[in-house]
Amino acid sequence: MTYNTSYIPQSDPPRPPWETLPTMYDLPSDNPEEPGLPDDFHFLQPLLLYLTFQPTNWNPELVYSAADLNLYYDLQHPLWYKRPDWFGVVGVQKLYKGHDLRLSYVNWQEPANPFVVVELLSPGTEDEDLGTNRESAANKPPSKWEVYEQILRIPYYVVFSRYTNELRAFQLVGGHYEAMTLTDGRLLMPEIDLSLGLWQGSFRDIERLWLRWFTLAGKLICEPTEETAAATERVILAEQEAIEAKQEAIEAKQEATEAKRKAEKLAERLRQLGVNPDELG
């Protein structure tokens, strides 16, 4: 007996697991109970700021910066802290009391408060970072905005969103933050002879828009690998120039030899014609 199987429904082949399992977009690093946990960008961007924070009018031994380090700010509530994505301080040694790596930054034990703070915005931390929700309950820690502006009185507060590439900054004026305007695309901080702006390029082989330190005049401050690459390029250019100079010297010598040979040949020809070339003026 022959059966017609043309009407038997065919099941779809099973989908590979990677098409059905949650992706990194479904499992972000942010924790609703502890927002702002670091991702790749929160590691690389502060690292770039750390490597290039070089105030030219300060002794490098008195310049300190840190990323994702607890910042304790209230002696009345010593367990309260904020954790900036990055902050820089001038007038402070790199080591705690000159001999130990810091476990945290305790403002009442340090000679100076941070001079500039950078926060990298994310959906879970935007209200806290920008102080848009300022309803502080009794015995509850204030927002980052309030701490930076009213308690630590940090002169410059910078926020950057990698989602919108928007850069905003605030300067402490008369006890409160006022929005800063960009000058040639940069935020000027003349007290430390630096400026901060956006730069399109590759850092750690990642091409994107990065927040970077510049000199006050606008010259990009290189991080160590860029300095090495620039030094290597200078050596290569110097070697090329030396080779070109040597080649030019060889060609000049060849031209002089050829000119001398032609002159001797002409002199010999004149002698054959009965003319003494030495008597010619």
How much is the average pLDDT?
Answer: 83
Structural shape: elongated
Largest sheet: 6 strands, mixed
Query: What is the CATH class designation of the largest domain?
Result: Alpha Beta
Helix content: 25-40%
Q: Can you name the CATH architecture of the largest domain? A: Alpha-Beta Complex
N-end to C-end Cα span: 124 Å
CATH fold call of the largest domain: tt1808, chain A
Total discrete domains: 2
Helix tally? Answer: 4
Pick out the low-confidence regions. none
Portion of residues in beta strands equals 15-25%
Taking strands numbered 1, 2, ... along the chain, how are they ordered across the largest sheet?
1-4-6-7-8-9
Run of helices and strands: HEEEEEEHHEEEEEEH
How many β-strand runs? 12
InterPro entries: Uma2
Protein name: Uma2 family endonuclease
Keywords: Coiled coil, Endonuclease, Hydrolase, Nuclease
Coiled coil: 235-276
Task: List the defining traits of the structure above.
281 residues; alpha+beta; tt1808, chain A; 2 domains; six-stranded mixed β-sheet; three-stranded mixed β-sheet; 4 helices; elongated; coiled coil; Uma2
How are the SSEs placed, and which strands pair?
Layout: H1 40-52, E1 63-66, E2 71-72, E3 81-82, E4 86-90, E5 105-106, E6 116-121, H2 126-130, H3 144-151, E7 156-161, E8 166-173, E9 176-179, E10 186-189, E11 194-203, E12 206-215, H4 224-272
Parallel strand pairs: 2-5, 6-7
Antiparallel strand pairs: 1-4, 2-3, 4-6, 7-8, 8-9, 10-11, 11-12
